[in-house]
Amino acid sequence: MANWMSALIGSDLIAGIQNSYELLQPLANPWLAEISEAEVEPLVLASVLLSLIVVYLAAKLGGELCARVNLPAVLGELVGGVIVGVSALHLIVFPEGGGEVQSLLMNFVGMTTGQAPEGLLRVFQGESEVISVMAELGVIILLFEIGLESDLKELIRVGPQAAMVAIVGVVAPFAVGTAGLIALFGIDTIPAVFAGAALTATSIGITAKVLAEMQKLSSKEGQIIIGAAVLDDVLGIIVLAVVASLAKTGEIEILNVAYLIAGAATFLVGSILVGRLLSPYFVMVVDQMKTRGQVIISSLIFAFVLAYIAAAIQLEAILGAFAAGLILAETSKHKELEEQISPIADMLVPIFFITVGARTDLSVLNPLEPANRAGLIIASFLVVVAVIGKVIAGFVIFGQPGVNRLAVGVGMIPRGEVGLVFAGVGAASGVLTESLDAAIIVMVIFTTFMAPPLLRMVFKTDDEVVAMPSADLEVAEEVESSPEAS
Amino acid sequence: MANWMSALIGSDLIAGIQNSYELLQPLANPWLAEISEAEVEPLVLASVLLSLIVVYLAAKLGGELCARVNLPAVLGELVGGVIVGVSALHLIVFPEGGGEVQSLLMNFVGMTTGQAPEGLLRVFQGESEVISVMAELGVIILLFEIGLESDLKELIRVGPQAAMVAIVGVVAPFAVGTAGLIALFGIDTIPAVFAGAALTATSIGITAKVLAEMQKLSSKEGQIIIGAAVLDDVLGIIVLAVVASLAKTGEIEILNVAYLIAGAATFLVGSILVGRLLSPYFVMVVDQMKTRGQVIISSLIFAFVLAYIAAAIQLEAILGAFAAGLILAETSKHKELEEQISPIADMLVPIFFITVGARTDLSVLNPLEPANRAGLIIASFLVVVAVIGKVIAGFVIFGQPGVNRLAVGVGMIPRGEVGLVFAGVGAASGVLTESLDAAIIVMVIFTTFMAPPLLRMVFKTDDEVVAMPSADLEVAEEVESSPEAS
After folding, report:
1. What is this model's ipTM?
2. Min CA distance, B328 vs chain A (Å)?
3. Domain A133-481 has CATH 3.30.450.20
4. How many CB pairs under 8 A join A and B?
5. A395 close to B (CB below 8 A)
6. pTM greater than 0.80 (yes/no)
7. CA within 20 to 30 Å of B67's CA: A58, B2, B274, B321, which one?
8. SS3 of residue A341 by DSSP
9. B112–A312 CB contact, under 8 Å
10. Interchain CB contact of A476 with B (< 8 Å)
């Protein structure tokens, strides 16, 4: 994956540093590094503390600034992440993003603890591992919270619409994107299919967060978007499996794909059916417990079990967490649980959005770099297809008068981290050329960062036209509420 | 440190597995292991999820069982940790505790994700790193919460008493322990000094948790114990620095010790003075914020900054978190913050106690193993000195009629993870013989596991005699409260 990364970084200085870092690799076993293992653990803890301080400062500064100019706070967190990340301050960076020497945070840890920066490779790797997993736990908790605030009955009612939106939102950008790349840019079939596939997946996290901030999560549009995004996530995983095996072996492993589809369907339907059967016993057990934290810990066990199962059958952990939230939303513990999950989400979710921003390398956007230009031209095509493909999907909704179809389509626009997974897998398998890979990343950046303000805009127009006040004030203290309210 | 570990494990089978693991080390760079880095990250996440499920199940089962037979819940968590840890089920184990092959949890991850167990070394290391750091964050949040529930003015008022308790509680067991080891067991001076030093430190976490469970934290005894335990922690760090340099070079580095003492004093006094000056601005900034989680995130930033500073100047991160809690307890955000930190503590604190239990290797207690016998005899001497030395310290309190001096002394008994650090450093530097090292570990196990029930017993007697109801019901829902109360 190193050639992909250095292509993205695109700076000779950084590439030079990275090369020397790679040369060091076979010599230095990081687990037997210059500092002893007994010294490593306190340094990893100190680095994690410092990273969390940076994450929270960036999240709050970005979020507050955006909230003041009436933009979604989550956009501020993403931009805050970009500023502290690999594109600017190099405070929150990851080993796969270009080696240890560039982590200013590690230099600071070295300085304040009297440890030479060269000795900190092992510490850096440990810190990155912990922050990555905490970010993943953050998005798991976010989806659990989204599930808790969703309404299973409403979700089932809008199911057919959500399925239509999801399917059109996958097929339209894939077909137009692939055909366009072949016809307009003369790209080979397999890389074109791969890039087309990268246009399909929706980042459920970003859209769901914006909807929650606007208290639109339990609106009809909100529930269609959430339902479609969940299905989209499943479809995205299947599409990725198909194109990855296509790239690897030149053919599609039907059995593998069939296994994935069956697994996903069984999991989503099965977990909700079995969960609803078991949830009375869950409440009974919780009521019997006498020690502190009985509701939250029992719920986390339930959410993590479903998340683990989803991850183990090659789906995504967030799908399991979402299903767990949906099931527990129907129990009598629902209100108490929502209150208790809120501070945990406050603590973990920003780590996710900041690291998404921090991993985003804006240097691919620099048109002064000749290597970027081919990618930027393809990218503008991909951005147009990515946006139109999803907006069209919103308009296929049938039999739902009064639904803001534009809002549904716009809600599906952000590709977020899911698109980056496609770019990463494509580059690692050698299918994507550097310019095509860069184009996918530019497309992901644009769709991810434009969706939050766009979504707010289309919902605002809606409110002005219909003059219908939002009915769902259940959502815990959000952007607009004053701090004294809680 | 490997010889210490294999000495502790004491089983030929396990030692054999560990040896083959060590032989593999120079060959296999874990960062370039059998599975590619792109496959590692989801597996690390899945393993962390599974570990958390095991941690929470063990914590709740242990805690609930103990609560039902009127023992402190934290004892149940420690025992639960032992059961899932290296002594029994091998579900939560750490690389330094004997190599990957023994982690049944990793085998399960391998089985359910279709990954061969041999390929999981890198995943196992990542998972252990994350769980270790989350446990450390747990004890940081615990001490922050303890600080929030403490009363700075009361702590200053009982300061002289706490200082007396701390000093006598360090000097008495150290002097008696060292002299006894030399006189009774014919042990050399330097190892005897090291073992004596391991008798000094108090595990503030375990005592504070038991006090909180009994709602005794803001009682006079509670505040003396907390104050003394904090000072003890500082003294313990200084003692460790002294004996470690003594073991390494044969002499005491006066400058280093003076630096530590000055740093500790400056930090504790300085952070509280500066913190009190700045806290009105903190409240002002929080009141200006409009986005979700403003109180909790701002407070975590503050706590983590102090924790980082404490860690950076070679103190412990928990001291910084405790100071931050003390300072924020005096602000108007105090009540709101206590409510919000509670679910975060519920989520993270059990990870700490379970891992303390999981790392405890009970095989040193097996008298059938001839190698253990010498250690067990020394251990029984150390346990007696450890208990009497701290109980005596409680009785030096002066001018405080009505204070339960026995309770204060008993509160200082648990050595917990601090004692294990001494054993680890001692073994790593080669100063301690295997039997002496094992004896220290046995002493730590006994004092840690006996303190919670003892503490509850002495406080109960107190209540019966004086018939004075506990006044501090501020502490959020604890053991005795019914689940419906919240």
Report:
1. 0.83
2. 17
3. no
4. 231
5. no
6. yes
7. B321
8. helix
9. yes
10. yes
